[in-house]
Amino acid sequence: MSLVLQENCSLRPYNSFGVEARARALAQVHDEAELREALALGEQRQLPVLLLGGGSNLLLTQDLERLVIRMESRGRRLLEEHDGQVLVEAEAGENWHELVCWTLEQGLGGLENLSLIPGTVGAAPVQNIGAYGVELKDVFAGLDALDLKSGERVSFVSEECDFAYRDSLFKRNPGRWAILRVRFRLSRQPVLHLDYGPVRQRLAAEGVTEPTAGDVSRVICAIRREKLPDPAQLGNAGSFFENPLVEAQQAERLRQRYPQLVAYPQADGRVKLAAGWLIEQAGWKGYRDGDAGVHQWQALVLVNHGQATGRQLLELARCIRNDIEERFGVTLKIEPNVL
């Protein structure tokens, strides 16, 4: 076998929080053949496997007695086009935002609201990433994955992925599937999603009355850069808590106590609350304990100011979650995967 394993490897460069943790071994694979080779090596050495994409949705709290496999596969292509609808495919190791930019350069809309989300293409379906009124499932057309139990390559359509809010079949079965490539149904005449106020306001302020998909992407990138820190400058994993879904009656009770409550009615009758608003109201915005902190501009983002450990960040998250539950009766769910 030709694949080289890095022994006792630091994972600091491979997680956007920038926390120190070491892996027993690390393999960087570029295609399905190398992936299968790495899996065989892991089995030979009796090491459990962890698949790693961009490390942007991960909090490491200890060293890992595992073989960490990073998906480095590259490739993006137009598969077919019919009546302005275009099927696009990208390999799992592609950078997500670079894919979004490439589709816009091809004159295709559909991914613009998901601009500047960190991570890789292969990790996107696991979390069913979403932003500004659009989720991945809205443009998803299929994917290929390797079943790590049977070694079989399997193709999935949307219904088989069981997508939900920041959730999927793949997230609920960690260690079972290695996503190889993902397909998207995009359009040359996209229906733009401008439901979120800041997007409309920014476009109006620029005098854009008939926005294109490129315009939407551009203003969303600007908004995200203003609200969210660059992981290269300040370690973070983006939004640390999911926006909680509550029953309409509970939302109404909270609104009576807090008239400025930020809430979004859902199609199923429930209400989505803004977790960042709750955390800010509780006084956590800008909080810092050593190098573990809450971002000064966005209360939904936990940050590593330099040398925070994963355990310190997790403990801060638990304190925030307990406080929000006590104050508001709302349970926050951690969004990143915690190891």
Characterise the protein shown here.
The protein is 28% helix and 27% strand. It is an alpha+beta fold and 339 residues long. The chain folds into 3 domains: 6-71, 2-Layer Sandwich (Uridine Diphospho-n-acetylenolpyruvylglucosamine Reductase, domain 2), CATH 3.30.43; 76-187, Uridine Diphospho-n-acetylenolpyruvylglucosamine Reductase, domain 3; 235-338, Alpha-Beta Complex (Uridine Diphospho-n-acetylenolpyruvylglucosamine Reductase, domain 1), CATH 3.90.78.10. Strands 6-7-12-10-11 form a 5-stranded antiparallel beta sheet. The two termini are 30 Å apart.
- CATH topology group of the largest domain: Uridine Diphospho-n-acetylenolpyruvylglucosamine Reductase, domain 3
Report the mean per-residue pLDDT as an integer. Answer: 93
Gyration radius (Cα, Å) is 21 Å
The assigned structural class equals alpha+beta
Order of strands side by side in the largest beta sheet?
A: 6-7-12-10-11
H/E element order: EEHEEEEEHHEEEEHHEHHEEHEEHEEEHE
Can you tell me the residue ranges where pLDDT is under 50 for at least 5 consecutive residues? none
- Helix % is 25-40%
Number of strands: 20
State the name of the first-level CATH class of the largest domain.
Alpha Beta
